[in-house]
């Protein structure tokens, strides 16, 4: 993959090879698609110019100047650094933006338990049973949208799933009520093997597809559409699980996080919770 510095052009062939490289590394489909888009945008920005350290640094600063959030910029950098390693352009790798962990999070886009239930009721009301079950499965187990593929008839019968991702295997238990609902669904639909929760075309739900359906349902549910996205279901699971168990290490294992620090992001107190803590200190005379 090595090219001389003068020939470091991000070609379509290199981009296609990078996608194969990511698949062989067993990266999640959503990550592969995100990195693919980031490299395509980097190539478009270079517009045929060779990739140099100066160009990469300029690109990084431009992303920040365009108003992208630090986490989005760092995601693009991760995609670029991975591509540079794949291409053998190790000297082009660049540092991430330094982001101080927030003392509290903006809870304005959090999905509350009542809002989640309203979405579920509306999905059942309009007959969108697969979406309702997809939401319930993610919210009650903490799995990712891409991991719905592991919820098969065989897994439902066993009540547990062995999920393999990024070279790690973790066990996910199905709540008894969820197991019963999925079994009833299989019996009603005549599903005897394979994946249980698929869209109307029999295809696995992508994050974008499920997101679109949740937004459609949100209007009838009286839920702000900006809150109706799949990752909010996983976030709701994390908050609820931690409130019940107080075990952040176990939560990290259930969510499939490599680091507890990642899990801490999910559990940061909201601004209102932080204010109540400050009020309780009694330090205002």
UniProtKB/TrEMBL annotation:
The keyword DNA-binding applies. GO terms for molecular function: DNA binding. InterPro entries: CB (IPR044068), DNA_brk_join_enz (IPR011010), Integrase-like_cat_sf (IPR013762), Integrase_catalytic (IPR002104), Integrase_recombinase_N (IPR010998), Integrase_SAM-like_N (IPR004107), Tyrosine_recombinase_XerCD (IPR050090). Keywords: DNA integration, DNA recombination, DNA-binding. Gene3D superfamilies: 1.10.150.130, Intergrase catalytic core. Pfam families: Phage_int_SAM_1 (PF02899), Phage_integrase (PF00589). Residues 9-88 form the Core-binding (CB) domain. Residues 106-279 form the Tyr recombinase domain. One of its GO terms (biological process) is DNA integration. This is Integrase. The lineage of its organism: Bacteria, Bacillati, Actinomycetota, Coriobacteriia, Coriobacteriales.
């Amino acid at each position: 993959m090595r090219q001389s510095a003068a020939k470091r052009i991000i070609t379509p062939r290199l981009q296609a090879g990078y996608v194969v490289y990511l698949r062989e590394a067993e990266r999640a489909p959503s990550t592969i698609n995100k990195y693919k888009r980031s490299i395509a945008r980097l190539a478009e920005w270079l517009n045929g110019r060779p990739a140099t350290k100066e160009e990469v640094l300029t690109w990084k600063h431009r992303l920040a100047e365009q108003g992208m959030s630090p986490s989005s910029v760092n995601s693009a950098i991760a995609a670029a650094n991975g591509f540079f390693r794949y291409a053998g352009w190790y000297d082009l790798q660049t540092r991430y933006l330094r982001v101080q962990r927030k003392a509290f999070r903006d809870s304005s886009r959090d999905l509350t338990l009542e809002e989640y239930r309203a979405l579920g009721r509306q999905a059942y009301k309009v007959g969108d049973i697969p979406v309702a079950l997809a939401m319930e499965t993610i919210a009650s187990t903490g799995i990712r949208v891409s991991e719905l593929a592991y919820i098969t008839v065989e897994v439902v019968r066993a009540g547990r799933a062995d999920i393999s991702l990024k070279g790690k295997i973790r066990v996910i238990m199905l709540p008894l009520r969820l197991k019963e609902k999925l079994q009833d669904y299989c019996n009603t639909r005549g599903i005897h093997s394979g994946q249980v929760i698929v869209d109307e075309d029999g295809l696995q739900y992508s994050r974008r597809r499920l997101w679109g359906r949740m937004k459609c349902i949100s209007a009838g549910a009286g839920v702000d559409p900006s809150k109706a996205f799949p990752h909010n279901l996983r976030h709701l699971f994390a908050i609820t699980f931690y409130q019940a168990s107080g075990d952040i290490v176990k939560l990290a294992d259930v969510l499939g996080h490599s680091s507890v620090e990642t899990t801490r992001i999910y559990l940061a107190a909201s601004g209102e919770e932080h204010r109540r803590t400050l009020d309780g200190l009694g330090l205002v005379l």
